[in-house]
Structure to design on (309 residues):
């Protein structure tokens, strides 16, 4: 694992991957490198015009790349279902890799189309529904993987099972941390269920450390906080590692041989930057009961159940 780079990604020819949020940042870099190694990559993007631009850019950077755009808005469960139905009608026999990358961070209080607090709804519930709806395709491919992109900020707090949508009190960073804890609890329970069912499916997670993406500026831009936006932009230029480097832990989780169930990877150096390595995680992200309860609540909220697990 020492010094692992995108050049170490195994041959992906004959494999199909779905990457959410593939139009920019870590998602774009992940999709491009999978395509570079021969995978057919579905760019699951909310904004069609930005998705088309990303599709064209990958084609320029990786001549012959097999990529296609499919619109997906994780803040709208109807869109999630439409995406899964389109994939089902595509004629593909299965799905080898699902990278649950898209996310929002530290936004002012908002609700999704289905009434969920936006960070919890997009970062966790949208991906929970997407994975469940694509599960038959994943189970049809031996060795399929589901990689969820969490964050070191999961350490800000455990999920509040009595207030998943932050209706009693909303603190944007705590809500973000809880949504990233939810990503890890989801991975923990998906891995447990896959083992219990004897399914040839690996659930793993990763985080990018401090990588320069538009996540840092989106929330403050929404509020018109120009000074805070400038500070975030400066930090991205001076402190953060590149989006390419930030994508490496997810790419490792997605493609490296021998990745274990419920593994969690991040940058090697203090969890901020560097080559992928096993990452520290808060003890509450490994709690079986919390994972089971969050899973049950997520099924109820989304109406999606995992047939076969």
């Amino acid at each position: 694992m020492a010094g692992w780079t995108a050049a170490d990604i195994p041959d992906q020819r004959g494999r199909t991957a779905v990457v959410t949020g593939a139009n920019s940042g870590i998602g774009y870099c992940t999709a491009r490198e999978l395509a570079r190694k021969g995978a057919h990559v579905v760019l699951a993007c909310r904004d069609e015009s930005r998705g088309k631009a990303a599709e064209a850019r990958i084609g320029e950077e990786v001549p012959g790349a097999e990529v296609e755009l499919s619109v997906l808005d994780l803040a709208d469960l109807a869109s999630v279902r439409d995406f899964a139905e389109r994939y089902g009608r595509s004629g593909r026999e299965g799905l080898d890799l699902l990278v649950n990358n898209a996310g929002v961070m530290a936004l002012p209080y908002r609700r999704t189309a289905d009434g969920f607090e936006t960070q919890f709804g997009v970062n966790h519930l949208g991906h929970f529904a997407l994975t469940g709806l694509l599960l038959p395709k994943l189970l049809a491919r031996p060795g399929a993987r589901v990689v969820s992109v969490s964050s070191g900020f999961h350490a800000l707090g455990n999920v509040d099972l009595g207030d998943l949508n932050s209706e009693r009190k909303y603190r944007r960073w705590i809500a973000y941390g809880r949504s990233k804890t939810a990503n890890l609890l989801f991975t923990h329970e998906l891995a447990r269920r896959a083992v219990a069912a004897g399914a040839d499916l690996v659930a793993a997670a990763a985080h990018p450390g401090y990588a320069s993406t538009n996540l840092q500026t989106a929330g403050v831009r929404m509020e018109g906080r120009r000074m805070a936006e400038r500070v975030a932009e400066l930090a991205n230029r001076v402190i953060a590692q590149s989006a390419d480097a930030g994508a490496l832990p997810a790419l490792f989780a997605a493609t490296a041989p021998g990745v274990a169930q419920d593994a969690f990877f991040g940058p090697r150096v203090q969890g901020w930057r560097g080559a992928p390595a096993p990452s520290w995680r808060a003890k509450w992200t490994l709690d079986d009961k919390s994972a089971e309860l969050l899973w049950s609540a997520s099924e109820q909220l989304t109406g999606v159940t995992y047939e076969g697990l």
About this structure: The first helix runs from residue 25 to 36. The two ends are 31 Å apart (CA to CA). The beta strands are 16-20, 40-45, 66-71, 97-100, 144-149, 201-206, 264-269, 273-278.
